Structure formats: structure tokens, C-alpha cells
Amino acid sequence: MSPREIELKLSVAAEDMDRLRKLPVLSPDEGKPTAKLLDSLYFDTADRRLQAHGLSLRVRRQGKKLVQTLKSAPPPGVGALVRGEWEVPVAAPRPDLAALPDPAVLAPLGPLTADELEPVFETRIRRQVRLLTPAPGVRIEVAIDQGEIVTPAGASLPINELELELVEGEDTLSLYHLARTIHAALPVRLEMETKSARGYALADGGSLTTRKADKLTLEKDTTVEEALASVVRHCLTHMLANQAAALAGEDPEGVHQMRVALRRLRSSFQIFRPFIPADQQETLVPGVKWLAGSLGAAREWDVFLGELLPPVTAALPGHPGLVALEKAAQDAHAAGYKAVREAILSPRYTGLLLELAAWVDGRGWRNQPVSERSALLLRPVSEMAGALLTKRYKQARRRGRGFAHAEPAERHELRIALKKLRYAADFFRSLFDQRAVRRFLEDLSGLQDKLGHLQDVATVTKLMRELEDTATGPATKGWQHGAGLVTGWHARGLHDMESGVVEDWRRFADTKPFWREPAENTDGATLI
Description:
eight-stranded antiparallel β-barrel; 16 helices; globular
């Protein structure tokens, strides 16, 4: 087993660094603060083999000493970073692979010599270190870092952060308690990227990417508790992977994927509701709902400008009403993204992330009376998945009764139920036959796409009402005429697709579930 590093990183605004150093909660319990200069050079091969295998290799100058450190990447997620760390002294400011205490860690890279390694970036940090002992047997090292990351090409990125590392004990919650106390006194942000990850991004040009949810793998013997933790972490990882792109506002997929991740997260709380105390649901869910709502306007205007308006303007190029409507929509779109940035950069956002991460890492759901239901947390999730899926499936079937004659609001409710079913199927799909899962999801996806378009079109009326209060100025004069054209255009489109969406519903309703529906008296099923 490799040596482990367990830490939380918090980024701080440059202008708040002096306030941070003076916080009473960071007064050292042992000795006086110590200061040091840390210049570190990170190495990799020309084809970035170390990075590709989740490793970082640096040589750091600490006073007169040179220390070589190899670290593994932390598993994806939010909260405390837990990773392997191998540290040895070296004689020269270049890596010495022979000095590694466990050379086997580099085996997946294939044959590798020190001559193949070249500098990728450098960190220049002024660090102040303090030791805290918040509880018996628990020691936390607080490292306050200020400096920069620099590439050989001259690109640079400022560093203003603190690292809270658990150097003694296993009480990870003590890190969260300290972080939340700091956050209450001064604005900080949870930093989930290591310095090495930021250095590689800077060396590669710092391009922003968006990411869909990765496939989640659960094993047959994974307990319900382990599945709950994995699903929540999975959703948070998906959300954070798109945070930078959402802030930049250049790619609509950033906000879209953040909202998908939040919907999946809310759905996970509903799926695992039988195992989560009600008071915890009431504490955590409103924050998730607030964040999703803060991203809503930006996403709605993205869809309007990117999907609903273009076919009409293409058919009627230069129409004054459509030109005015587009300008009014762009103004509303900008306001939507302003709300996105305000939400993500707010203290409430950081507080929500710290609260969710502490709940997952601390297994908060264990804080409940022992009961027949809570005992199910220790059962294999493969025994419970069928009942959890069946519950979502029956809800969707009930919502779809009389589909051909259903009102738009009823179809919207069905769409929501199908999303919950889809997310549950995605969470548990690794436990079942993959061909059966694929067939089921293909039929479900086609129906979801059409219902999604119906809802997007229904949103046009809502967006046009919002413009009544916001569309001002000569450039937007006459937008109402354009709004009428867009509404009429898509009303005709909905009429044309009606028979297809009804057929898709019938096809899905006839699709056989890929799981075995539990009998009414199946142990545990009636509790779910």
C-alpha cells in the first residue's frame, strides 16, 4: 500500500490572503508558523505518459535540499483529495527514477528512462505552515501558499490557496469542520484541481472542455451504502467537470451538463430516499435545487437562440421582427449567464459543495436509528436495484396513461418521470445484462428526445412573457412580431410530430424491463 496524502484545497482571492493569515481559527496549536520557499519543476515525457497514467513527478528545492516526489492522481470526486505519494531526496535537480521507493508504480508506463523526461512547468510558491490539533489524535497541517505556475513558454497562473492536510488520525470530517469555519469567516472556494493538473492545463493552452457523465460501474457485491456514496460522488464529479466552461459562457454545453449533473444528483436523493433520513434530505436538497434554478435561464435562452430561433430566421432572413427578437433574446441570454456566474462564485455555492462532500465522506446517512430499513444499507445493491427501478418504472407508466390525449402539462410530468427512470437505469446498468439495458435505453431515449423538444417549444411562451419586462431600447423594438412568427412556426411543427411521439410512447410502453421486477413479498422490496 502506498503512503497516502489526505487534504482539502481552498482557493482564496489575492486581496484576502492577509486576512486569511490572521484568522484566529488558524492560530497554530504547536510552535510558531514556519515559512519556506518552494520551487518545484515538474517533468514528463514528450508524449505525456505520466499524465496519461494519472501521475505527476516533480523535483522540489527546499532550502539546500532537493526532494523528488511522485504522486498519483486523486480519484475523481469532490471533497478531500486522497492519493498516493512517494517522496525521496535526490542529488541533482532532475528526476532519479532509481531512487523511487516503489519502482513498480511506474510499470504501467512501460520502459522509461530519466533521459526521456523533460520539464513541463514550474511552481514558485511562498508557503507558510501551521500545525493544528483540533482533537486528541488528530493533527492538521495548514499550508498557506502564494505564488505562481510558470511554463517554459512564459505562460503563468497565480496561486493563492491553502491546503488542509490530515497528517495524523483518520477523522476526515475534521478537515471539513475547519474548512467550513474558515469559509464562514472569509470567502474561499473549494479547489478540486491539484497544482499539477493546473500546470498541465496551462502548458496545454488552458483550453476549456465540457464532459458528459462517465459510465458508473457498481459490482454485484457493492453495498447499498457504497452505491449511494458512489452515485452522489459521480454526479458531483460530472458537475465540477463542467464548472469552468459554465463560468466562461462560451460553450452552451457547460451549463447544460452542469444542469444534467444536478438533475441526476436530485434524482439520486429520490432513488435512495428510503435510506436517507428525512431531515438530511430537507437540509441538502434545497441547495441543489437553488443551484439548478440559478442555471435555468441561461440554458433556456441557449436552447432558444441555438435551436428554436434559427429555423425561423433561416426561412425569413432579415425579417425586422425576428432581428429585434434575436437582439432581445441575446440581452436576456447575457443576463442568464450573469446569474450563472453569480451563483457559482457565491459563498452559498462553496458552502453547498463543502456540505455535500462532508456528508458523503462522513457517511452522514448513518446518523439515524437502527431499523429494518437502515439495515438494508449493508445489503448488496444488486438485491435492491430491481425494486428501486420498478418503483420509477411504475411511476412513469402511471404518468403515461391516456398519453395520446394528454395535455402538455401531463406530458411534462411524464417527461420528468422518464428522466428519473433514465437516471436510475444509468446508475444501476452495470449490474445487468448490457444488451438488454441498451435496448431499453434506446427506446427510452427516442421518447425522451421528442418530449424534450415538446417542452422546449412550450417554454417559448414563458420566455416571451419574460421579454415583456426586459426588452427595451430601439434595437429590440418590434420583437413581438418576431415572437408570433416563432410561436406559430413551432406550433405547426408540434402538430406534424404528434403521431410520431404517440408511436414512440407505445413502443416504450411495450419494452420489456431489463431487470427482474420483485415479487410483492420480496424481502426489502416492500420497504422501498
